[in-house]
Amino acid sequence: MYLTKEEERILNGEAGETLRQAIEILVALGDIYGADGLIPIKSAQIAGVSYKTIGDAGLEWISDLQGRVKVPAILNPAGMDLEDWERLRISPDFAEKQKLIIQAYEKLGIRCECTCTPYTLVGFDVSYGDHLAWSESSAVSYANSVIGARTNREGGPSALSAALLGKTANYGFHLDENRVPKISIDVGFSLNRSDYGALGYVVGKLVGSRVPLFHLRNIPDADELKSLGAAMAASGAVALYHVNGATPEACRLDFEEPAEKITIERNQLDDIYESRRKACREPELITLGCPHCSAAELEQAAELLKEKKVSKELWIFTSRELAKRYPEQVRTIEKSGAKVICDTCMVVSPATNNYSCVMVNSGKALAYVPGMCRAEAVYGSMEACIEEAVGRTEKKAGGSY
């Protein structure tokens, strides 16, 4: 792996211990994966933020680092709403540790907006062909697939190292040859919004980490693509996918049709709605926003909850920036008794551990909640989730599980 003279000096410790550790991490990864050198990046998105997932050891490591990031950098969701943590029954001890983690990152010059959808934030722009060092699985999938930027699925330490150096190792999805589809997915029926999360959950298990090329009967919008990619990244390890007629590289590049093909049948998606519904008798908690809700999803939730009252806990997760940008939608949602929660999500917050059965409209959450929150998870559309939350006496017809 080639290093410039400046990079060699950093590796020798001449720029301080923090940068020496950072470049050592990136060089080790580059050596493992055959990188030819380091390349500049436009931005970084850093996982390893929730105290639930990194604990005291992670807090200690981050707190010992010195220096400032060289590129715009932002954090993944934390373990709690940083401004209103008490309403989800977060313990004071957890809250204190979580605040120390945020302060340690802030000291390094990182924007402490905690979201898995950094591409929605003002001043954190990403364009086609940009090289990034992002680490949250759904954000990586969105950047690679929907935007056409280039990033590997970095670990928290490697994304932080890249932010401190302004560079990452040149391997994996930074290279043209690794962005070519390896398997074709044919879906011979039309899809509704929540079907994309179910489809991603099914396909992720089938393709693992390979790059799929989808042939769909309808053109998905950005939120549907977000759901599809997030689910595949969670149930499998898909970090890049293409959709004919929809995603930028599928539209710009002349891909050769992969030799291996999979056909998805409607009953495979129906099984996601039905089999998981049988996992528990009644969901105790309903959650939306994994990945964080977009402006359009907040609008949809507000419209569905207008003039209704919830009879079960309903948590709707979004970035703090979007919550502040759309106060009317937030007010409408919270007037129903639902909670709009920022900075965190149901997966990385210990608050979810207080429930034994959680209903979600996210294939990503469906994959992660059982293992990370020790709760059963059931799947439904946003409409079905809200119908469940408002109670049977207020339900309308048409919300499918």
UniProtKB/TrEMBL annotation:
Q: Name one Pfam family in it.
A: AcnX
Q: Which domain of life is it from?
A: Archaea
InterPro entries associated with the record? PMDh-L-like_dom (IPR007506)
Signal peptide residue numbers:
none
- Domain Phosphomevalonate dehydratase large subunit-like: where? 1-387
Q: What is its EC number?
A: 4.2.1.182
Keywords from UniProt, A to Z, are: Iron, Isoprene biosynthesis, Lyase
Substrates-to-products reaction catalysed: (R)-5-phosphomevalonate = (2E)-3-methyl-5-phosphooxypent-2-enoate + H2O
Cite the annotated pathway: Isoprenoid biosynthesis; isopentenyl diphosphate biosynthesis via mevalonate pathway
Role of this protein = Component of a hydro-lyase that catalyzes the dehydration of mevalonate 5-phosphate (MVA5P) to form trans-anhydromevalonate 5-phosphate (tAHMP). Involved in the archaeal mevalonate (MVA) pathway, which provides fundamental precursors for isoprenoid biosynthesis, such as isopentenyl diphosphate (IPP) and dimethylallyl diphosphate (DMAPP).
Q: Which family is annotated?
A: Belongs to the AcnX type II large subunit family.
Q: Partners and quaternary state?
A: Heterodimer composed of a large subunit (PMDh-L) and a small subunit (PMDh-S).
- What name goes with this protein? Phosphomevalonate dehydratase large subunit
Organism expressing this protein natively: Methanosarcina baikalica
